[in-house]
Amino acid sequence: MNPIVETNYGKVEGEVTGNLIQWLGVPFAKPPIDELRFKRAQECDKWEGIKSCRSFKRKPIQFIDFILTKIPESEDCLHLNIIRSNNNQQKLPVFVWIYGGNFIFGENSDSHYDGSLFAQDGVLFVSINYRLGALGYFDFSIYDNQNFDSNGGFSDQVMALKWIKENIEYFGGDPDNITLAGESAGAISISHLMVAPSTQNLFQKAILQSCLPEMLHTEKTSRVFVDMFLKSAGLDKTEIKKILKMPVTKLKQHTDYVFETFPQELPGFLPPSNVNDDLIPINPLTAIESGIAANKKIIIGTNKDESSYFISQKRLVPYTRELFNKMFQLNQVEDKLPKVLELYQNTKTDKEMIKEFCNDCYFLIDSIALSNGQAKYNDVWMYRFDYAPPLLKLLRWGATHTSEIPVVFGNMNNQSLGAKFWKGAPNQIKNKLINEMHLSWVNFAKNGDPNENSQNNYWESYNTDSHKVRIFDKNSYTIQRPYKEHLNLWQGLSFYK
Questions:
Q1: Which residues are catalytic?
Q2: Tag placement on the chain: N or C end, fewer CB within 10 Å?
Q3: CB-side neighbour CA atoms (13 Å) of 292
Q4: What is the rounded distance in angstroms from the CA atom of residue 292 to the CA atom of residue 288?
Q5: Which candidate, 36, 79, 82, 32, places its Cα nearest to that of 58?
Q6: pTM of the prediction?
Q7: Separation CA 229–CA 245 (nearest Å)
Q8: Could you tell me the residue ranges of all domains in the chain?
């Protein structure tokens, strides 16, 4: 395939690498800088000549201390990457990856998300960037809607999908066979993209790994973060305009204060994310229950020990019994506590009990609710990832949050942070899991079914009668109607609503 491709905005030149061809750092929106800082994404400007897209462009500003890659960060970050097989095949299925990172870190240049294996397996792989932290997910428009827009980071994702829908055919992709996939913050984003009015015709299928669809803030809950940010900055709400030109170092400092403060003051409170506004005007679970995404097939699932990492790092979740109790007290549901403790009575320590509670509270219960709602209208496949490689067992994290990503991408041997946790795992098990999980994602992107064909129907679909869930493990299997007692308890339990 010719590495020079003409898009609706201008020509881009990619690079052939072996049997693959890739275009890196393709702009899909105007740079969100100067007067567009804190504004929603704007359509990309056209350019003259040929734009070189042979290397990664700058990653979004990161609002966390550790460094994933050596790629420089910048507010001018709205680019996407495309990789496909180097041949002349057209109408390739399109697989769009949205990274996670709690909406405060992440980048499409992280080798954790290298889509080469997807491309080798006949899928056109796209990964997008979006703004993070205070630049994309703090709703300063609460106090000034003239200079600030809500849902800046989400608008980046919407603009990227519009660009893909309109331009991906020039790269040999099928604009009518687009699958969105993402993990954690990426999966949350996708659950919101499924119900957003502006994205209804931009994709056909979705894969949601470790999703929290209810992580959508109202004006009331968004104000908590904005007020904390202003307090750290020493600003009154009438002075919020000063944030427009606040240096990145100060934005990071005040965002750090918010993330250090709210989990202590409001244990169990969900961190900054998308907000309920004109872009996302309805609660995701309510919208899915009503059939707004009826034309979309989905894969959705969680990991067996999702919360163990957060508890060990003392981040975000109520990681002590004192914080756990405070969460119930602040929400005036202490009367539910005996039933909760009874449900998790087989755990040996407070830490283990809190882990099981948080697995349900943040990931499992809402994922089941989304599955139940969507299964009334279209095909749903649900999974749980149970395998823990030796190093994660040694850390007592088990099959924790993000541990399935190297399996999905088949990237267990590269230099990414996630791959390092798989060192020491038997090759036979690694290859088996890749063959089961990665190839299911490929099949789903190609045909809308994770099974290769009807004769090899190993993964049965989920429905509201059978509730079948595929367990990916050393020896994978299917279970039916799991979590019944958990669902009964959680029907009457909610926090910070």
A1: 184
A2: C
A3: 21
A4: 5
A5: 79
A6: 0.97
A7: 15
A8: 4-490
